[in-house]
Every structure is written in C-alpha cells, then in structure tokens.
C-alpha cells in the first residue's frame, strides 16, 4: 500500500508498504531516517519514540497505514521543531511544511556526515540535544534519540520538573549504559538553560 | 521497496575531528560523536543500507538437544522474492567458529545443542518475505536427553554435548562435559580451619544475566568484485572476528575487510560472532549485499549470556576477626558451546577469594558443557558470580562474630604487596579498606522520602513505584556493603596487545594528528580519550579519529576493562615515536640555529616545539611543512603466565581493579518489592583520563549490578532447556524509576606499570553493586537470600 | 494482509461484517507486538484510528461513556474525579508512550487477564457497548470475560464505548510488578466503595484465567460493614474484618505459576493489596475529603 504523511514538516510518501510494517520500519528503511531506533520493537524500550500529531509514541507499535495524513516528528527534526517552538511560541509545530526539516530527496540521500566539533559547533541543536552532550548523558547513544524526543516533550509540558517528574516521564525509555544519572543531569541542565533563556527574554 | 539513491552503504563510518585547543589527558572533554548521536545521524550497524540489498533471516531450533533427521527447504525456495535458502550443507568452507575453541557451527549439522541454534538461512527482498520463507523450512528433529546441570553433565553415562573433543583442555578435564577445570591450592585450608573460632558455609546461586545492549545484532555484508567481502558490523574485536570469519568463507583474511559500524552497547555480548558469517555466506551466495538485523526475541538467542553459577563456600575466622581459610567450589554453566568459558573459569577461580588476605585456600572452579544457552563474556567476567558469594560470606562471618561488616572486611582487606591465592603479588595500590571507609562515611539519604507536604505518599519514591502498592505500609529500610576485585586485561599468558597508527601532518597551516586504531567504541568513550592522549602527547589541538577497521593492526577486544590501558597505551606509544620523528626532523632542519635542539629536553606543546624550560624553538608546521609522519606500532602490557593446572599458581593477571558499594534499600516486606534508594560507589581508577566518562562508566556498571540483584534473569526451563522469557516484556532491566542516585567517589592511585597510571574501570562496579544490594535487603528483612535475582517470592516465602 | 481504513464507525462495522476475521487495531500496543515478533499474521487489519467517536468521552448523570480508544493518558488527566480507580489503573499501564496510544477498548478486546483496566472496571461497575451491523448490545462487565484471552464479542462486533459508573465513593487500584515502572501485572487489585448502595466491589487481575471479582470477599465485607454500622459511624475497620476480607480476596484467585510469578505469591499479594486498598479507601471515606488519593495518582 501507499502511505502519505508528514515527517519533520515535509510531506513524505512511502510506496509498496507491507501492511504489517510499522511506522518505525517505514522511517528507517524507506525514508532514510534511521534516527529512531529499533531496540525492542515491542514498546518496552522507547528508543523508537517519535511525536505523532504532537504526542510521544513508540513508532514500532504504530502501523504504517495508521499515519496516513498525520504529522510525525523524529529526532532528525527535533532541533528544527524546538527552534520553531521557541520562535512561534509554545506548542509550535512544523505542520505547515515551512520550517525546513528533511525533504524527501534529502532524506533518501541520508548518510552519516562528518561533524567537525565535539560541542556541536556548526550544527544547530535543540537545548535538550546540547544538554545531553554537555552532561555526558550519551554513551552508546542507542537510547538517545527516543529519550530526546520524550524529554523534549516533557519540558514543553513541564518546564520546571522535579526529579520524580523527570523519572516518571522517562520511565518508558530504557538505557543500558549510563545508569540514568547523567540523563537526569541533562534534563535538569536543559530545564535550567531554558529558564535562564526565558528570564532573558 | 522505495528507490534510494545512495551508492555506498549509507552510514559508512566517517572521520571525526576535534578542534578544541585544550582537552588532553585528565580533562572532561566531550564525546566527538556526541553531535551525531543526538541528531540521529550516527550510523549504527542496524542503520546500514545498500542499493539492491537483501535481508537475511535465520531459522533457529525449536528444541534444545536433538539430532537433525532432515531439513526440507523446497517450499521456502519457492516463495517469491527469496534469493537463497541455505543449510550447513551449503557452507563454503569451515563449518565452525569460536573464540577459544572452534566448536560452534555456523549452521547446525548433525545435531542441535541448544534452543535457538541457527539451522538454516534465507535471503529475500523484504524481511517479511524472509520470515515467511524461513517458516516454511521443515526440520525434523529426533530429541536427545538433556544435559542441564552439573549432575546430568557429569553422570557416568551422560550424553556428551560434544563428542571427540580435541581442544587444549580435553585431556585434563575430569569429564568431557566439563569445558575446563581450574583448581587453586595455597597453604593448607584443612589445617587452618582448625584455628577457626567460627566457620560459615553457604551455597549460592547466580542467575543467567543478559547483556541486554539496546542495539540489536546487525550489519551489512557486501560482496566485492575480487571475490572478497566487505563487512559493516558492530563487534568488540574486529580482528578476532575476522580470524573466525575468513575460514568459514574459505577466504584469506585480507579478502575479509571489516569496518566498524556504530555499536549500540556491548557489555561482552559482542565478543562472539553473531550474524557476521551468516550474512557473508548469503552475500557471497547471492552476489548481493545482505543486511541482517535480529529482533529482540532473536537477540536473546543470538549472543552468549553471563554464566549462571552455583557457588559453594566455606570460610573460617578467629574471634578477633581474622579469616583463617576459605574453601570453595564454583560451577559455571557454559551452555552448549565453549565461547569464553575457559577464561571465565580462570577468573572465577583466581578471584574467588575476593580482595582479602587469606593464606590458606582450597579452590575449584569448573565450566560445564550443557544444553542450556551458551554463555560467555559479560561485564565482570567470572568475578561477578564469585563476588556475590564471598561478600555474602563476609556478612555471615561478621554477624557470627558480632562484628561490624565493614570493620570485619577492613581487618581482612588486601593491600599493595598482598599475595593473591595464585601466588601473584599485588604490586600496585589496592586501597580496599579506604574504599569501604569512604562509602561508609557518606551521610545516609533521608528517611521516608515518599512523604509529601499534605498530599499523601508519592508512590514514585516507594517500592512498587507507579503501581501504587504501598503508601508506606510494610516498608523497612536496609543498608548493605560490598567490595570486589576484578582483573584488568587479558590474562593467563595471552599475548595481549593493541596497535595504533598515528599520523601527523600540517593541514591549512595547522598541525593535525590522526589516530587510527581498530578499537571498538561501544559507548565507553574510547574515541574521546584517544584524542585526549594524542593532544597530550603531540601538543596538537586538532585530532582526527579514523574509523575503526581492519586496515590497521588489531586493537584487541573492548572488554576486560582493557582499552584505555591497552589502546590508550598503544596510542601513547605511537605518539611518542611520532614525536621523536618530528623532533628529529626539527633537529635536522633547525638544529644549527639554536643549541637547545641538541641539548634540551624537547616537548610538543600548543602546536610548537618547546624546551622543557618553555622556550619556543619552532612551530610544528614549520618543522613538518609538507612532510607527514606516520607510525603504526603494536604495544603490549607486561607478560602474564598461565595458571598451573593442578595448583593454580602463576602470575596470571595484568592488573587489579577495586570498587566498593554501599546500598540503601527500602523493602516492602509484605509484598516483597524492593526500591533501591541510593547506591554509593567508591573506586580507585588509577588515573581519570576523562572524569566525566569515568563517572558514567561507574554509574552504568553499578546499575547493571543492581539489575541482576532484583530483576534480571534469563529463565531456562530445566525440563526442556528452553528460554522462557526472551523479550523485554519478561526480561526486565532497570528503568529510570528503578535506579537510585549513584554518588561516585573515585581515587586516583596510579599504577606505575600502566600508561598514565590508569586502571581499568568499567567492570569493578558491576561486581560489588549486586552483593551490596543483596546485603541491604538481608539487612531489611533478616532473610538469608542466596540467589540472584531476589524475587518477591523469596521475600514472602511464596516460592 | 490487507489494511482496512474505515473513515467512519458505520464503515468500520460494515468492514467487520464483511471480514469477521479482521483484527481491529487502534493503539496497536498489543497487535503490533504480535506482528513484529511474528506471532500473528491477520488476514485483515482494521484501523480504527480515524474514527473520532472512539476517542471521545461523555460524562453523564450516572456514568461516563468512555470511547474505546480514549488513551490512558487522557483518562489519567481528565477523569480522575469521575473514574478514580480507572485513572489509577491507567497510570500503571506500561509507559507514557504506551499510555498515549492504548485505551480501554484494547484491554477489553485482547481480554488478557493481565490487562490493567479490568480490575478497575469490575470494581467500579461497567457495561461494554458493542456494536455490529446487526445492532447494539450492552454487555455487563461481569459477563464480558469468557476465558483466557476470550471475551463475549461476536465475530462481527466491535467495542464502541464503555459505560463506567461514576464514582460515588473512594476507589483504589494496586498492581504488583517486579519493576517500579513499565511492567506487566504479576497481579492487580481494584476496589471501589459505593456508599450510595452501601456496597463494595472488587476486581482481580492476572490471578485467574480471566479478570474476576472477589465475590465472597465483597459479600463478607458488605455484611460486616452493615452489621457494625460502619457506613454510618465511620469507625476504623477492625483488623479482623480486614484480614478476613483479604483472605477471601486471596481465595478468589485461581492463579498459575509462570515466568512472572508463582501462583502462591499471586494469592498472597492479592490478599495484601486487598487489605491495603481497603484501608486507603476507608480512610478516604472517613475523611470524606474527596474521592481520590492525590499522592497516589
């Protein structure tokens, strides 16, 4: 079957989709967006978390056919999404397609690019992405994309979370490397930076 | 499939360059791959993609031990979209691989020896097509009796898991179903026991733990025009893989070109081959690139696990708290194939005493062949199981003597100069008593943290968490301590080395170093510290980390806590040689202009050649101009010896690492649910090359130990030898709500034998974390608790 | 496999009538796991995501009409007053991501004894509104569960809404799992006080082939509360009554040994949860200060 939907603000079309395919498979194998990760494919680890019409979901448990006409934000579009939100206020979305994101052609040409900096110099990151790097919350990084999408959404809803709030919001995202301490640090850091930024404005 | 336009495998790893001016050894520089990892662009092995690629799928055995009567692939071959269906008969060359013995079939032939063993392979144009075709392969099994434990393995009439063994241990083991046996005898335990005022005995069971790395086994095999193969996979040791892969493909090693793809965690589980040979065989057969990705179910069958163990211990002590002797027997279940069981046995026996001074010991460790899932490397490697048991024994002894458990340990703690039971002198710092002192001195976390101002209980701070099982009822706090000892590096006479190729050249007027090794970056931050070392040694700010591949010599495995020591050491060594070369060029070009070139100690700093007095002699750019200096050298740690097969004596280990934990838990004693409140760790790290990464390693290792204490276990049905919980629904690992704060206190007592004084750090925290949590639960409940993981049933008497 | 995408409820019913083997998919949190792990290959998937009415709820006089696909996160946030037991149960469902997708209809459709919503529905009292092209039926929740993963649905029927009685008193819900979050129930217990009828209702999950009520425990407690005048005098329930109630709740279980827990533990834990939830709800009733325990949500 054919599925048309919006990913990171750009319309996408996937063809010859097998009916049992998940949104995760379509993103990774058909649209060249492998940032969402395939760790368990049973909704237990959260590494495939994306936003579906704004709501964080496990993309491995969304049938591809269910996203017809809907909007998806993946980790690849997170920086742009956060920027848009900051510029256009709370809850901004890339639904218009005007905010950049990854075009179909760009997506299909995806490949890992060399990065020239340890701190993200030259690459625009969302506050939560930068905080994960700065706090040492990334080790193998396989859980990172899902955690970033989930944490970003939590900070959107709850800009000053307590530790218990952070733990609850991220309880659907397994990490096997870090023991979570530095992930908590990263979310606290992003929240603090956001607050400072808010005060500055 | 949608049409992609990528020509080379997408996600082929690319160079990572750093530009920061500071950031040498000792700085908390940030990961060079951090940006790629937070933007989703870092290419893991499961992200590989190639035009025209096929998907490989294995069919795995549904029974644990059986003769294969027949395999019928005809229906599978008839499925549209299928390109190949292979069985062992179709394998091009050697049929077996293996880390220590070549005993593991690529595809089962003759018989299957464990549940989930690969039996056949399919390549098709879509993963679903491959799965459907695999389901149509008909395999007829004739079931054989099961070997599942020591009794069934060593019975006189036991069926042999492997007949006709010819491996190096076959001749000395007491039974062919014993992979390896390592006794250690020192002093006279029976005589010493007579001096004991108290004796405690215990029988302990350690469950089978899974590495549960998040990135599934996966990769891409691309057939090359020269008849060779290009492999993009996630592994802990490229060169050891290649040594095993090439014979199975019937190719010389230089035609098996391996590139490291991004690794989604490893923890020992990628030390053995998984999909590498299977994908290669399919690629060579079909002439097309083949991608294989295990799903989580298959992953539980696709890699070895931590050896489950039975441990029998006896300790004695005098009234003043001195341990008199220790006797133990450790039975490790290696499952159907040897993997690294031999080395795990060596570790378990040689570290079975723990970090204590005990002169009279009688130790025996054996590793079994059974029809259970194969077991091999996992973080802590043989030392984890022993630590769980001896630390329980320490608490029992202390209790029996009426002593404080920490003081009792401190009285018996080893220190620099102590003899190991193997006779080896511990010749670098061993601050065991100090580590215990530090965790004990920490302030206790506040009590009753679930109480909120007027809003009732916050269940997130209580055992049971969000499941709302208690608002404080039945909750009792407990505190427990543990300390452990782990060896670092490959032991027992293994020729353990790493290789680093360092290139220095001038690009755009700036001196740039490139570090090329085959070391696996599994998440630990090797790439970060490699650049730090190059900066420190070569005085450059910009370092490029070349992707790991087999175009450079072996780095050895990313395991045994050895990579900072070994590949760090190799990089340091090659950098020193490069530095000498650069200075030589400098002397040649500029020596006549300044006497210091000949007389002073010269350094490379901030892109310049300087004297040790700080005088700048030239810029590196001026020295090198268009010249590039490149050196590839191997580097070795000091040699070790094999353990004597009868006495266990020998200088078998390279280095020892120590960590201590204090666990504070709260147990719902009625429901048997546990919440770990705090898990404080103190560890000697020798030298923190990157403090941020050091803490991350300690917290991660601690959490894996916590998992095995209270929830993690692969459950194998003893009647069928089948795995009952191969999923993340029923194999539970800690969530962020299960993981407490983990305060870390590290010491930097340099090991004079190691580069920068470093000590392997990744493994030790995994040892003591588990027994500390167990001790805390015992403290809260008064129960004996001799098994990991502790289940609610154990705490409520409802097994 | 065919993927059916009805745009309306009527289209969905027609599709289900035409293809009775079609498997409905809404949140996908059960069925997609089975597809990903190769356990199931339905001939037809019937996507219910485009049907708005399934995602709506309506608070009436007596009950809440809860659309089958209203996600658990919405129940937690918006129906804590009306359906406190179900809101607590919703909070124990898997993870935030799953709670954003899964709804009560999925629990009912799958009818696994481990479904988190069941004990809360049994305790609150509910009717399941199912529909086919032939018409509508209201199935009392007590008659809905027919066996392990079997329910009272006919092949052509779909679950439309659940009519859950609005709370007239305190409700509680507890679930035992061996992890502090994201865990399938080893066993679960729901309890609702109904002061208007002076009755107590219960629900037990994962401790019998189907979700069940602890009927004998309810009857005992109803009688004991009545006899002691507890509803009026608001006295603390005596430990012996609580113990008897807990023992009878335990006795209502018919559990199995499996990888998640032993039968013996399940019986034991249900008893503990019964005693605790009774204590909590009764305290709330005595305090008379609202129907939910804030801190527990």
Keywords:
heterotrimer, A: 201 residues, alpha+beta, DNA polymerase, domain 1, 7 helices, 10% strand, B: alpha+beta, Aldehyde Oxidoreductase, domain 3, Aldehyde Oxidoreductase, domain 4, 6-stranded mixed β-sheet, 19 helices, 32 strands, 25% helix, globular, AldOxase/xan_DH_MoCoBD1 (chain B), Molybdopterin-dependent oxidoreductase (chain B), Ald_Oxase/Xan_DH_a/b_sf (chain B), Ald_Oxase/Xan_DH_a/b (chain B)
Task: Kindly describe this structure.
The complex is a heterotrimer of chains A (201), B (799) and C (297). Chain A has seven helices and five strands; from the N terminus they run ββαβββαααααα. Chain A is of the alpha+beta class and 201 residues long. In chain A, strand 1 (3-7) and strand 2 (10-14) form a beta hairpin. In chain A, helix 4 packs across helix 7. Residues 91-104 and 107-120 of chain A have low confidence and may be disordered. Chain B contains 19 helices and 32 strands. A seven-stranded mixed sheet of chain B has the order 4-8-2-15-12-13-14, with helices on both faces. In chain B, strands 10-19-18-17-11-32 form a six-stranded mixed sheet. The longest helix of chain B has 28 residues, at 563-590. Chain B starts with 15 loop residues before the first strand and ends with a helix. Chain C has helices spanning 9-18, 31-36, 72-78, 84-91, 96-99, 104-110, 117-124, 215-227, 230-233, 239-251, 263-287; strands at 2-4, 23-25, 44-47, 57-59, 63-67, 126-132, 135-140, 145-147, 150-151, 158-165, 171-176, 187-194, 199-205. In chain C, the strands form four sheets. Chain C has a five-stranded antiparallel sheet with strand order 4-5-10-6-7. A three-stranded parallel sheet of chain C has the order 1-3-2, covered by helices on one side. A three-stranded antiparallel sheet of chain C has the order 11-12-13. In chain C, strand 2 (23-25), helix 2 (31-36) and strand 3 (44-47) form a beta-alpha-beta unit. Residues 289-297 of chain C have low confidence and may be disordered. Chain B: It comes from Streptomyces roseicoloratus.
